[in-house]
Amino acid sequence: MSQAHQQNGNRGGDRPVDDGADSPDDAAPPAPPGPPLAEQASEQMSAQEFEDVVGDALDRIPADLAEAMDNVVVLVQDEPDPEMLTAEDYDEAGLPTLLGLYDGVPLTERDESWSMVLPDRILIFRGPLERWCTSREELVEEIMVTVIHEVAHHFGIPDERLHELGWE
């Protein structure tokens, strides 16, 4: 399974813009039957503990960078919405593998007229992260990496540069 962090493609990321045309190659598989996906994940920590770790990751961002974050909200979601996913975002069992998503316009692409817009969103997906990790310690570390990865997208740092820096 490969780690999946993504930036919304219609706003400066690496995913194609959805032109409304459905392609058989891009069609996401249907959700598997059974309980909601978050319930299928091995619960390594409570929802509150998970959110606390996300908060801890945000607290680790240097103060000058944290102050520079503008018009962005960080949310924890159990699972990605199906419309956020492509065929590559599912594992062999049909479960989503997307760990986090930046949905917005990076600071580097905004100009002085940027105002009166809804906040960008950084989404952290609990179910895929719990399924990805085999221990609580690994889960804490991967939450930290995912939060930093998505915050980097807010600052306009693309996946390629993050990979060069060792943030896989």
Automatic annotation (TrEMBL):
Signal peptide: none annotated. Coiled coil: none annotated. Residues 27-36 have a biased composition (Pro residues). InterPro entries: Zincin_1, Zincin_1_sf. It comes from the Bacteria. SUPFAM superfamilies: Metalloproteases ('zincins'), catalytic domain. Residues 1-51 are annotated as: Disordered. This is Metallopeptidase family protein. It comes from Actinomyces johnsonii F0542.
